[in-house]
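Colleagues,

For the teaching module next term, I've prepared a clean inverse folding example: a structure given as tokens, and then the sequence designed for it. I'd like students to try predicting residues themselves before seeing the answer, so please don't circulate the second half yet.
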């Protein structure tokens, strides 16, 4: 187990992608756990998916921050509506505030969208991340934590995926940008001694998630009576990871920056780490769909007599997809005493109940 070397209390934290699924949950968790914390969120609020969900997340954060002030528990929230690809906007945040920890979650997400709209990925995932690295270089930060992705493993045949595996064969531009982030962070850690930790997330799901993710898209289609397509004839396996487990991992990792140290040659060893955060138990897509359907019926989103068989179609694999994702989380367990453990059914119960409330079914 590593020892925490960063105390978040009273610090200023920058969370990029703060209106996003993981970002908004992280901000809420920080306010819940840490006294006198100042959180600055930045998000461009693109219309890649329904912006109403993003504004709903921000509203929840604002309500939490207001209640903290009313209870005199300290803590403050500042939201900046801008893209991290806007260098001036990023620089202003760092100039106006003493940022202790950066959690970079802003990114253009989605594998399939990267095939049709590559420009969005270059802007946010490469130029945006470069701007964050430059800001961390010129304004000394204690720790840069950034989102990578399980997609960097490409079509690796060896499972479970280990952070020691070679990841030189991305099968999508999205994956290539995430691998690039790891390489860029390594270079900045080496050149400028910036402690950085990359997190390879595995298929994150949960309430108020991203509508482009399979479980959410399936639900929308089933509600409308449309047919859902199950890729690779249902033989895909995914390491579905509940959002609270992801956030738990991020919060723990934020508090331990890789140590600055010199090697035998007297030169600095890059203070650089990469971890998988996944459920370590991949689920077959057909089993996943069965559980999702059962919980949607239980939550009243779908009627009890819904004919599932008539609404599902088994189809071949899509370009850019991989048949299996499976995380080796041993280093996360060894260093932080934590592994994601929310069962798929438990997570989908919470999603179905949220969906029923949000869409007033």
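(Answer key — instructors only)
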């Amino acid at each position: 187990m590593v020892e925490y070397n960063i105390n978040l209390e009273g610090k200023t934290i920058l969370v990029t992608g703060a209106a996003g699924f993981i970002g908004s949950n992280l901000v809420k968790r920080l306010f819940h756990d840490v006294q006198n914390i100042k959180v600055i969120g930045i998000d461009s609020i693109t219309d890649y998916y329904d912006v109403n969900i993003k504004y709903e997340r921000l509203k929840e954060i604002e309500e939490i921050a207001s209640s903290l002030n009313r209870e005199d528990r300290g803590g403050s929230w500042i939201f900046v509506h801008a893209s991290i690809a806007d260098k001036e906007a990023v620089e202003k945040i760092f100039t106006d505030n003493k940022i202790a920890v950066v959690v970079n979650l802003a990114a253009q997400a989605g594998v399939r969208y990267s095939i049709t709209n590559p420009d969005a990925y270059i802007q946010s995932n490469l130029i945006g991340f470069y701007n964050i690295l430059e800001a961390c270089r010129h304004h000394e930060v204690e720790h840069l934590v950034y989102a990578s992705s399980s997609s960097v493993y490409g079509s690796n045949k060896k499972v479970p995926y280990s952070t020691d595996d070679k990841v030189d064969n991305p099968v999508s531009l999205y994956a290539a940008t995430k691998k690039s982030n790891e390489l860029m962070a390594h270079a900045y850690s080496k050149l400028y001694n910036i402690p950085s930790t990359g997190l390879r997330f595995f298929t994150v799901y949960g309430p108020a998630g991203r509508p482009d993710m399979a479980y959410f898209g399936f639900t929308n289609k089933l509600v409308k009576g449309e047919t859902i397509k199950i890729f690779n004839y249902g033989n895909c396996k995914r390491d579905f990871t509940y959002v609270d487990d992801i956030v738990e991992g991020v919060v723990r990792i934020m508090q331990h920056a890789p140590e600055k140290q010199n090697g035998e040659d007297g030169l600095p060893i890059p203070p650089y780490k990469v971890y998988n955060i996944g459920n370590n138990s991949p689920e077959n897509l057909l089993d996943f769909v069965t559980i999702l359907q059962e919980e949607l019926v239980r939550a009243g989103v779908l009627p009890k007599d819904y004919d599932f068989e008539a609404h599902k179609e088994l189809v071949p694999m899509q370009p850019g997809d991989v048949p299996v994702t499976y995380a080796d989380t041993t280093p996360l367990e060894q260093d932080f005493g934590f592994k994601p453990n929310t069962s798929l059914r438990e997570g989908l119960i919470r999603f179905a109940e949220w969906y029923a409330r949000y869409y007033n079914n």
